[in-house]
Amino acid sequence: MTGPSDLSNPSWWIQSGMVLFVLLMIKGLDDSQSKSDMGSSLHSS
Questions:
Q1: Distance between CA 15 and CA 8 in Å, rounded?
Q2: Which of the chain's termini has less CB crowding within 10 Å, N or C?
Q3: pLDDT digits (tens, 9 = 90+) for 1-45
Q4: pTM of the full predicted structure?
Q5: CA-CA distance, 24 to 26, in Å (whole number)?
Q6: What pLDDT shows up at residue 31?
Q7: Contacts of 6 (CB under 8 A, 6+ apart)
Q8: Angle at the Cα of 14 (from 5 to 2), degrees rounded to 5?
Q9: Phi, psi torsion values for 27, nearest 5 degrees
Q10: Cα–Cα distance between 11 and 24 in angstroms, integer?
Q11: Cβ–Cβ under 8 Å, residues 30 and 36
Q12: If we measure between CA atoms, which residue out of 33, 29, 2, 31 comes closest to residue 41?
């Protein structure tokens, strides 16, 4: 784990922010894909 002193380091916030942003992007893509899959399955049936 990172020490408390890392919290004052701007690069630490930038790195953590980028990681969170990527995770949210992937989660959003997964949600949209699952929704589209459900829609296509409903239309095909």
A1: 13
A2: N
A3: 556 666 677 888 899 999 999 999 999 888 887 777 766 666 655
A4: 0.49
A5: 5
A6: 82
A7: 12
A8: 30
A9: -65, -40
A10: 20
A11: no
A12: 33
